[in-house]
Design a protein that fits this description.
This protein has 9 helices and 15 strands. It has 348 residues and is an alpha/beta fold. The strands form 3 sheets. Strands 3-2-1-4-5-6-7 form a 7-stranded mixed sheet. A 4-stranded antiparallel sheet has the order 8-9-14-15. 39% of the residues are buried.
Protein backbone atom coordinates (compact mmCIF):
# COMPACT_ATOMS: atom_id res chain seq x y z
CA UNK A 1 0.00 0.00 0.00
CA UNK A 2 2.89 2.31 0.79
CA UNK A 3 4.29 1.90 -2.72
CA UNK A 4 0.88 2.59 -4.27
CA UNK A 5 0.44 5.77 -2.20
CA UNK A 6 3.92 6.87 -3.18
CA UNK A 7 3.18 6.29 -6.86
CA UNK A 8 -0.08 8.23 -6.64
CA UNK A 9 1.73 11.12 -4.99
CA UNK A 10 4.41 11.15 -7.71
CA UNK A 11 1.71 11.03 -10.39
CA UNK A 12 -0.07 14.05 -8.89
CA UNK A 13 3.19 15.98 -8.74
CA UNK A 14 3.86 15.21 -12.42
CA UNK A 15 0.35 16.42 -13.37
CA UNK A 16 0.83 19.60 -11.34
CA UNK A 17 4.20 20.20 -13.00
CA UNK A 18 2.70 19.69 -16.47
CA UNK A 19 -0.19 22.02 -15.66
CA UNK A 20 2.25 24.67 -14.42
CA UNK A 21 4.32 24.43 -17.61
CA UNK A 22 1.18 24.70 -19.73
CA UNK A 23 0.04 27.81 -17.87
CA UNK A 24 3.46 29.37 -18.33
CA UNK A 25 3.33 28.59 -22.05
CA UNK A 26 -0.10 30.21 -22.41
CA UNK A 27 1.01 33.32 -20.50
CA UNK A 28 4.09 33.60 -22.73
CA UNK A 29 1.99 33.33 -25.89
CA UNK A 30 -0.45 35.96 -24.64
CA UNK A 31 2.39 38.30 -23.74
CA UNK A 32 3.86 37.90 -27.23
CA UNK A 33 0.48 38.66 -28.81
CA UNK A 34 -0.23 41.77 -26.72
CA UNK A 35 1.42 44.97 -27.98
CA UNK A 36 3.50 46.70 -25.34
CA UNK A 37 2.98 50.31 -24.25
CA UNK A 38 5.94 51.46 -26.33
CA UNK A 39 5.20 49.43 -29.47
CA UNK A 40 6.18 51.31 -32.63
CA UNK A 41 2.61 51.48 -33.93
CA UNK A 42 2.27 52.85 -37.48
CA UNK A 43 -0.34 55.62 -37.41
CA UNK A 44 -2.11 57.44 -40.25
CA UNK A 45 -3.97 60.69 -39.59
CA UNK A 46 -6.85 61.77 -41.82
CA UNK A 47 -8.37 65.15 -41.09
CA UNK A 48 -8.13 68.89 -41.45
CA UNK A 49 -7.83 72.31 -39.89
CA UNK A 50 -6.47 73.27 -36.47
CA UNK A 51 -7.93 70.21 -34.76
CA UNK A 52 -6.17 67.79 -37.09
CA UNK A 53 -2.93 69.74 -36.72
CA UNK A 54 -3.20 69.66 -32.91
CA UNK A 55 -3.72 65.89 -32.87
CA UNK A 56 -0.74 65.38 -35.17
CA UNK A 57 1.52 67.65 -33.12
CA UNK A 58 0.54 65.95 -29.86
CA UNK A 59 1.39 62.53 -31.29
CA UNK A 60 4.72 63.74 -32.68
CA UNK A 61 5.57 65.32 -29.32
CA UNK A 62 5.00 61.89 -27.76
CA UNK A 63 7.33 60.26 -30.26
CA UNK A 64 4.57 58.31 -32.03
CA UNK A 65 5.29 56.80 -35.43
CA UNK A 66 3.03 58.79 -37.77
CA UNK A 67 3.70 57.35 -41.22
CA UNK A 68 1.31 59.47 -43.31
CA UNK A 69 -1.09 62.40 -43.12
CA UNK A 70 -4.13 62.73 -45.39
CA UNK A 71 -6.30 65.78 -45.98
CA UNK A 72 -8.32 67.70 -48.51
CA UNK A 73 -6.62 68.94 -51.70
CA UNK A 74 -5.06 72.39 -51.51
CA UNK A 75 -6.89 74.76 -53.85
CA UNK A 76 -4.80 76.72 -56.37
CA UNK A 77 -3.56 79.99 -54.95
CA UNK A 78 -4.42 79.05 -51.35
CA UNK A 79 -2.22 78.04 -48.45
CA UNK A 80 -2.13 74.47 -47.22
CA UNK A 81 -4.59 73.42 -44.54
CA UNK A 82 -2.97 73.60 -41.05
CA UNK A 83 -2.84 69.79 -40.81
CA UNK A 84 -1.11 69.44 -44.18
CA UNK A 85 1.23 72.32 -43.38
CA UNK A 86 2.24 70.73 -40.06
CA UNK A 87 2.84 67.39 -41.78
CA UNK A 88 5.04 68.95 -44.45
CA UNK A 89 7.03 70.86 -41.83
CA UNK A 90 7.87 67.52 -40.19
CA UNK A 91 8.75 65.81 -43.46
CA UNK A 92 5.84 63.37 -43.33
CA UNK A 93 4.24 61.71 -46.35
CA UNK A 94 1.14 63.64 -47.42
CA UNK A 95 -1.83 62.36 -49.44
CA UNK A 96 -4.67 64.66 -50.56
CA UNK A 97 -7.30 62.74 -52.56
CA UNK A 98 -10.36 64.35 -54.10
CA UNK A 99 -12.34 61.36 -52.88
CA UNK A 100 -11.81 58.29 -50.72
CA UNK A 101 -14.27 56.27 -52.80
CA UNK A 102 -11.80 55.34 -55.54
CA UNK A 103 -9.71 52.16 -55.92
CA UNK A 104 -6.60 54.36 -55.97
CA UNK A 105 -7.44 55.81 -52.55
CA UNK A 106 -7.95 52.33 -51.10
CA UNK A 107 -4.64 51.13 -52.52
CA UNK A 108 -2.91 54.19 -51.12
CA UNK A 109 -4.22 53.45 -47.63
CA UNK A 110 -3.02 49.86 -47.99
CA UNK A 111 0.42 51.09 -49.02
CA UNK A 112 0.88 52.86 -45.67
CA UNK A 113 0.82 49.46 -43.91
CA UNK A 114 -0.78 51.25 -40.98
CA UNK A 115 -1.71 49.74 -37.65
CA UNK A 116 -4.22 52.45 -36.78
CA UNK A 117 -5.95 55.42 -38.42
CA UNK A 118 -7.15 58.52 -36.58
CA UNK A 119 -9.88 60.56 -38.25
CA UNK A 120 -9.36 64.04 -36.84
CA UNK A 121 -12.20 66.18 -38.20
CA UNK A 122 -13.12 64.31 -41.39
CA UNK A 123 -16.03 65.71 -43.41
CA UNK A 124 -15.68 63.58 -46.54
CA UNK A 125 -17.22 60.13 -46.86
CA UNK A 126 -14.68 57.56 -45.66
CA UNK A 127 -15.71 54.08 -46.92
CA UNK A 128 -15.62 51.18 -44.43
CA UNK A 129 -13.19 49.26 -46.64
CA UNK A 130 -10.71 52.13 -46.31
CA UNK A 131 -11.37 52.62 -42.60
CA UNK A 132 -10.86 48.91 -41.92
CA UNK A 133 -7.58 48.65 -43.84
CA UNK A 134 -5.28 49.40 -40.85
CA UNK A 135 -4.55 46.49 -38.52
CA UNK A 136 -6.65 47.90 -35.68
CA UNK A 137 -9.09 49.85 -37.86
CA UNK A 138 -9.92 53.53 -37.54
CA UNK A 139 -11.27 55.89 -34.88
CA UNK A 140 -13.25 59.02 -35.72
CA UNK A 141 -13.82 62.22 -33.69
CA UNK A 142 -17.31 63.71 -33.34
CA UNK A 143 -18.19 66.74 -31.17
CA UNK A 144 -21.31 65.43 -29.44
CA UNK A 145 -22.42 62.64 -27.15
CA UNK A 146 -23.51 60.16 -29.78
CA UNK A 147 -26.09 59.04 -30.67
CA UNK A 148 -27.27 62.61 -29.98
CA UNK A 149 -26.63 65.17 -32.72
CA UNK A 150 -25.24 63.03 -35.49
CA UNK A 151 -24.46 65.20 -38.47
CA UNK A 152 -22.30 68.16 -39.55
CA UNK A 153 -23.39 70.87 -37.05
CA UNK A 154 -23.51 68.95 -33.79
CA UNK A 155 -22.16 71.72 -31.55
CA UNK A 156 -24.58 74.33 -32.81
CA UNK A 157 -27.62 72.08 -32.45
CA UNK A 158 -26.75 71.19 -28.86
CA UNK A 159 -26.67 74.90 -27.97
CA UNK A 160 -29.76 75.81 -30.02
CA UNK A 161 -31.79 73.09 -28.31
CA UNK A 162 -30.89 74.44 -24.90
CA UNK A 163 -28.86 71.47 -23.70
CA UNK A 164 -26.78 71.95 -20.56
CA UNK A 165 -24.23 69.23 -21.36
CA UNK A 166 -22.50 67.87 -24.43
CA UNK A 167 -19.14 66.26 -25.10
CA UNK A 168 -17.02 64.37 -27.59
CA UNK A 169 -17.22 60.85 -28.94
CA UNK A 170 -14.52 58.73 -30.55
CA UNK A 171 -16.18 55.99 -32.56
CA UNK A 172 -15.49 53.34 -35.16
CA UNK A 173 -16.64 54.61 -38.59
CA UNK A 174 -19.21 52.52 -40.43
CA UNK A 175 -21.42 52.93 -43.49
CA UNK A 176 -23.94 55.09 -41.62
CA UNK A 177 -23.00 58.70 -40.86
CA UNK A 178 -21.77 58.95 -37.24
CA UNK A 179 -23.49 55.64 -36.42
CA UNK A 180 -20.52 53.42 -35.55
CA UNK A 181 -19.72 51.76 -32.21
CA UNK A 182 -18.52 54.11 -29.46
CA UNK A 183 -14.95 53.76 -28.16
CA UNK A 184 -14.58 56.83 -25.90
CA UNK A 185 -16.93 59.54 -24.64
CA UNK A 186 -16.13 62.61 -22.57
CA UNK A 187 -18.71 65.03 -21.13
CA UNK A 188 -18.58 68.79 -20.58
CA UNK A 189 -20.96 71.53 -19.46
CA UNK A 190 -22.58 74.02 -21.82
CA UNK A 191 -22.54 77.24 -19.81
CA UNK A 192 -25.49 79.63 -20.06
CA UNK A 193 -23.57 82.11 -22.23
CA UNK A 194 -21.38 79.71 -24.23
CA UNK A 195 -21.31 80.43 -27.95
CA UNK A 196 -20.38 77.98 -30.68
CA UNK A 197 -16.88 79.45 -30.65
CA UNK A 198 -16.53 79.26 -26.87
CA UNK A 199 -17.74 75.70 -26.59
CA UNK A 200 -15.55 74.37 -29.38
CA UNK A 201 -12.29 76.23 -28.77
CA UNK A 202 -12.27 76.21 -24.96
CA UNK A 203 -13.85 72.83 -24.22
CA UNK A 204 -14.49 70.38 -27.06
CA UNK A 205 -11.28 71.05 -29.00
CA UNK A 206 -8.81 70.24 -26.18
CA UNK A 207 -11.05 67.46 -24.88
CA UNK A 208 -11.18 65.93 -28.36
CA UNK A 209 -7.40 66.03 -28.79
CA UNK A 210 -6.99 64.27 -25.43
CA UNK A 211 -9.54 61.64 -26.42
CA UNK A 212 -7.79 60.89 -29.73
CA UNK A 213 -4.46 60.41 -27.98
CA UNK A 214 -6.13 58.19 -25.38
CA UNK A 215 -7.53 56.12 -28.24
CA UNK A 216 -4.00 55.48 -29.52
CA UNK A 217 -3.02 54.15 -26.09
CA UNK A 218 -6.05 51.84 -26.09
CA UNK A 219 -5.16 50.53 -29.54
CA UNK A 220 -1.60 49.82 -28.44
CA UNK A 221 -2.80 47.64 -25.57
CA UNK A 222 -5.71 46.12 -27.49
CA UNK A 223 -8.26 47.66 -25.18
CA UNK A 224 -10.44 49.22 -27.87
CA UNK A 225 -13.74 48.08 -26.39
CA UNK A 226 -16.73 49.27 -28.40
CA UNK A 227 -20.36 49.91 -27.51
CA UNK A 228 -23.01 49.85 -30.22
CA UNK A 229 -25.12 52.99 -30.48
CA UNK A 230 -28.85 52.87 -29.78
CA UNK A 231 -29.93 55.15 -32.62
CA UNK A 232 -33.51 55.23 -31.32
CA UNK A 233 -32.24 57.34 -28.41
CA UNK A 234 -30.36 59.79 -30.62
CA UNK A 235 -30.93 62.36 -33.33
CA UNK A 236 -29.61 63.50 -36.68
CA UNK A 237 -29.59 67.15 -37.73
CA UNK A 238 -28.31 68.66 -40.95
CA UNK A 239 -26.35 71.92 -41.33
CA UNK A 240 -27.17 74.70 -38.86
CA UNK A 241 -27.98 77.42 -41.38
CA UNK A 242 -30.80 78.91 -43.47
CA UNK A 243 -34.11 78.43 -41.61
CA UNK A 244 -32.34 77.13 -38.49
CA UNK A 245 -30.61 80.47 -37.85
CA UNK A 246 -33.64 82.74 -38.37
CA UNK A 247 -34.41 84.90 -35.34
CA UNK A 248 -37.94 86.04 -34.53
CA UNK A 249 -38.12 88.23 -31.44
CA UNK A 250 -41.76 87.28 -30.89
CA UNK A 251 -40.49 83.90 -29.69
CA UNK A 252 -39.28 83.14 -26.15
CA UNK A 253 -36.10 84.93 -25.12
CA UNK A 254 -34.27 81.68 -24.30
CA UNK A 255 -34.99 80.25 -27.74
CA UNK A 256 -33.81 83.46 -29.43
CA UNK A 257 -30.65 83.66 -27.33
CA UNK A 258 -29.81 79.99 -27.94
CA UNK A 259 -30.03 80.45 -31.71
CA UNK A 260 -27.77 83.52 -31.60
CA UNK A 261 -25.19 81.70 -29.43
CA UNK A 262 -25.31 78.60 -31.64
CA UNK A 263 -24.57 80.65 -34.76
CA UNK A 264 -21.74 82.77 -33.29
CA UNK A 265 -19.19 83.20 -34.85
CA UNK A 266 -20.53 81.37 -37.90
CA UNK A 267 -22.81 81.52 -39.81
CA UNK A 268 -24.41 84.27 -37.70
CA UNK A 269 -28.09 84.43 -36.74
CA UNK A 270 -30.40 86.18 -39.21
CA UNK A 271 -32.79 88.90 -38.08
CA UNK A 272 -34.79 91.17 -40.36
CA UNK A 273 -35.13 94.94 -40.00
CA UNK A 274 -37.00 97.03 -42.57
CA UNK A 275 -36.84 94.10 -44.96
CA UNK A 276 -33.05 93.74 -44.75
CA UNK A 277 -31.30 90.73 -43.23
CA UNK A 278 -28.92 91.53 -40.39
CA UNK A 279 -26.47 89.02 -38.90
CA UNK A 280 -26.47 88.89 -35.09
CA UNK A 281 -23.27 87.86 -33.29
CA UNK A 282 -22.15 88.85 -29.79
CA UNK A 283 -25.22 89.23 -27.59
CA UNK A 284 -26.41 88.95 -24.01
CA UNK A 285 -29.70 88.04 -22.36
CA UNK A 286 -31.27 90.81 -20.24
CA UNK A 287 -34.28 90.97 -17.92
CA UNK A 288 -37.73 91.63 -19.34
CA UNK A 289 -38.62 95.31 -19.97
CA UNK A 290 -42.32 94.74 -20.60
CA UNK A 291 -42.38 96.07 -24.18
CA UNK A 292 -43.81 94.51 -27.32
CA UNK A 293 -41.72 91.64 -28.76
CA UNK A 294 -39.39 92.91 -31.48
CA UNK A 295 -39.39 96.49 -30.15
CA UNK A 296 -36.09 98.32 -29.73
CA UNK A 297 -35.97 99.24 -26.03
CA UNK A 298 -32.66 101.10 -25.95
CA UNK A 299 -29.64 102.00 -28.07
CA UNK A 300 -26.36 102.83 -26.34
CA UNK A 301 -22.61 102.33 -26.66
CA UNK A 302 -22.95 98.72 -25.47
CA UNK A 303 -25.45 97.76 -28.15
CA UNK A 304 -29.10 97.53 -29.19
CA UNK A 305 -31.57 96.21 -26.62
CA UNK A 306 -34.48 94.31 -28.20
CA UNK A 307 -37.55 92.97 -26.44
CA UNK A 308 -38.35 89.26 -26.92
CA UNK A 309 -41.01 87.12 -25.29
CA UNK A 310 -40.24 87.07 -21.55
CA UNK A 311 -36.94 88.96 -21.70
CA UNK A 312 -34.60 91.10 -23.79
CA UNK A 313 -31.57 90.54 -26.00
CA UNK A 314 -28.72 93.03 -25.95
CA UNK A 315 -27.19 92.78 -29.41
CA UNK A 316 -23.57 93.98 -29.29
CA UNK A 317 -22.15 93.12 -32.70
CA UNK A 318 -23.85 92.59 -36.05
CA UNK A 319 -23.10 91.90 -39.68
CA UNK A 320 -24.52 94.49 -42.04
CA UNK A 321 -26.12 93.60 -45.41
CA UNK A 322 -22.83 94.51 -47.16
CA UNK A 323 -20.98 91.88 -45.11
CA UNK A 324 -19.20 94.15 -42.62
CA UNK A 325 -19.05 93.25 -38.93
CA UNK A 326 -19.50 96.24 -36.67
CA UNK A 327 -20.78 97.44 -33.32
CA UNK A 328 -24.54 97.17 -33.16
CA UNK A 329 -24.89 100.79 -32.02
CA UNK A 330 -22.96 102.00 -35.07
CA UNK A 331 -25.09 99.92 -37.41
CA UNK A 332 -28.28 101.20 -35.73
CA UNK A 333 -27.17 104.78 -36.31
CA UNK A 334 -26.38 104.10 -39.96
CA UNK A 335 -29.71 102.27 -40.44
CA UNK A 336 -31.71 105.14 -38.89
CA UNK A 337 -32.93 102.90 -36.08
CA UNK A 338 -34.49 104.57 -33.05
CA UNK A 339 -35.88 103.50 -29.70
CA UNK A 340 -39.38 102.21 -30.45
CA UNK A 341 -38.42 100.83 -33.86
CA UNK A 342 -39.43 97.22 -34.47
CA UNK A 343 -37.68 94.21 -35.99
CA UNK A 344 -39.60 92.26 -38.63
CA UNK A 345 -41.12 88.89 -37.76
CA UNK A 346 -43.01 87.91 -40.91
CA UNK A 347 -39.87 86.42 -42.55
CA UNK A 348 -39.81 83.50 -40.10
Amino acid sequence: MGNVAELLKINEEIKASQLWRELNRLETNLAEQEPSEDEDMRIVIVGQQAFGAAVLQRLLDRGENVVAVCGNPTKPGQADDPLISTARNHGLEVYQPNSWKTPAALEKMKSFQADFCLMAYVTKYFPPEVANTPKYGSACFHPSLLPLHRGPSAISWAIAMGRETTGVTIFEPTEGLDEGPIIIQKICEIAADDTLGDLYSKKLFPMGVDAMVECVDLAKTRQLSKQEQDLSRGSYESWFRKDAVLVDFTRGVDSVYNIIRAANPTPGADASYNGCTIKLYDSRKIADKGREPGEVVDINDEGVLVQAQGGCILVKRVGSPDGKRLRASKWASEAGMEVGSTFDSSHV
